[in-house]
Design goal:
The chain has 178 residues and is of the alpha+beta class. It has three helices and twelve strands. It folds into two domains: 2-35, no CATH class; 38-176, Nucleoside Triphosphate Pyrophosphohydrolase (Alpha-Beta Complex), CATH 3.90.79. Strands 4, 5, 6, 7, 9, 10 and 12 form a seven-stranded mixed beta sheet that branches. A hairpin with a 2-residue loop joins strand 1 (2-11) and strand 2. The protein starts with a strand and ends with a helix.
């Protein structure tokens, strides 16, 4: 049972905290964790292809493919945030968004809450994507490449992997029922 929580450090919408937890035997332990803002993103799928971002991960100094994802602003609906991030990060406007999956990729160490939607169409925006300062780009990749990209560790994001595999499972299930 949680007894108390204290802030150790806060910057850029991320807090490092310690929680005092009472175990069932009465012992107390402190557990560090990260508190973050909620995020929304989307799997954008059209014509057998999925829209992904090739971007650099600063913490691990690696490159990988990801779905568009970002923080939900104050008083912003998750669906609107997902659409905004797709447009800003890729230069594509998603079609109607439907809820796909809610993911908590690091529950033991962080309270990350990612709300993922799916769009089955998209159109180019007038504005170019904001871009990535380290040369990232958006591309339409064949959905059949997703499993090999995960196997090759070109997709390592837990949120991206879970969202794409969940979407792919839904496609397979729909195909099997027809």
């Amino acid at each position: 049972m949680r007894r108390s929580e204290r802030l150790l450090y806060a910057a850029n919408g991320v807090d490092l905290r310690v929680v005092d937890v009472a175990l069932t035997d009465g012992e107390h332990v402190e557990r560090p964790f990260i508190r973050t803002l909620r995020a929304a993103g989307a799997v954008v799928f059209h014509g057998g292809r999925v829209l992904l971002l090739w971007r650099h991960h600063l913490v691990t100094d690696t490159w990988g493919w990801e779905i568009p994802l970002g923080e939900i602003g104050p008083d912003e609906e998750p669906e609107a945030a997902a659409a905004r991030h797709v447009e800003e990060q890729t230069g594509w406007r998603p079609g109607p968004l439907q809820p796909l999956i809610r993911i908590r990729p690091a529950e033991d160490v962080a309270d990350c809450d990612h709300l993922i939607f799916v769009a089955r169409q998209a159109s180019p925006c007038a504005a170019a994507p904001a871009g990535d300062e380290e040369g990232g780009r958006a591309e339409w990749l064949p959905m059949l490449r997703i499993q090999p990209l995960i196997d090759e560790q070109a997709i390592t994001s837990a949120t991206t992997s879970a969202a794409l595999l969940h979407f792919l499972a839904g496609l397979l299930q729909a195909r099997a029922s027809h």
